[in-house]
Amino acid sequence: MTSQGLTHLNRDGQAEMVDVGDKAETQRLARAAATVAMQADTLRLIRQGDIKKGDVLGAARIAGIMAAKRTADLIPLCHPLPVSKVALDLTLDDAACAVTIEATVLTTARTGVEMEALTAVTVAALTIYDMAKAVDRAMRITDIRLLEKRGGVRGDYLAEG
Q1: Which end of the chain is more exposed for a tag (fewer CB within 10 A), N or C?
Q2: Which residues on neighbouring strands pair with residue 26, listed in sequence order?
Q3: DSSP states of 99-154 as a string?
Q4: What H or E segment, with its residue span, contains residue 45?
């Protein structure tokens, strides 16, 4: 860890993968969320299953699960982890004209699964955009954030609100 508290930089300021070999394996959990804001008609089409590419929410759920399992292939300094569970909840929010996405990722490992949860919601959101872009190119992917983290040396985290 550098004097600034950055764990992924060596003494020379170069990026490096953190050595977690001496850490004990413990149960870890992370929850993350994202929002895809869209036009009301787009949300209606998704709800009715009338998007021409198919089941938007089903495809997004599978994409998010797959992404969580491949996070170490996408984020250069992430450790490959034995993910034991990935669950995605996608909720249609009529008042906000949005789909809210929440991912929960579990593992027993030497490091946490925050990046896996964040990757899951991000790829799920991108999948929604891809499947519905023919009817709404103005969709916005927003509010990607960590909601909760459990386990590990630094302790638990729960986002406010």
Answers
A1: C
A2: 109
A3: EEEEEEEEEEESS--HHHHHHHHHHHHHHHHHHHTTT-TT-EEEEEEEEEEE-STT
A4: helix 40-48
Can you tell me the distance from the alpha carbon of 118 to that of 67, in angstroms, rounded to the nearest whole number? 10
**Chain centroid offset of residue 78 CA:** 14
Nearest-angstrom CA–CA distance, 57 and 76: 28
Contacts of residue 122, Cβ cutoff 8 Å, sequence gap at least 6: 34, 67, 141, 144
Give the Cα separation of 3 and 144 in Å (integer).
28
The residue to which tokens 């993350």 are assigned:
32
Instruction: Quick: pLDDT tens for 130-146.
Output: 999 999 999 999 999 99
Count how many residues are written for the chain. 161
- 50-88 core/surface letters (b: 16 or more CB in 10 A; e: else): ebeeeebbebbbebbbebbbebbeeeeebbebebeebeb
How far apart CA 39 and CA 96 sit, in angstroms, is 10
Residues 6 or more apart whose Cβ sits within 8 Å of residue 21: 110
Prediction pTM value: 0.90
Over the stretch 41-71, which tens digit does the pLDDT of each residue have? Answer: 999 999 999 999 999 999 999 999 999 999 9
- Which residues are annotated as catalytic? 130
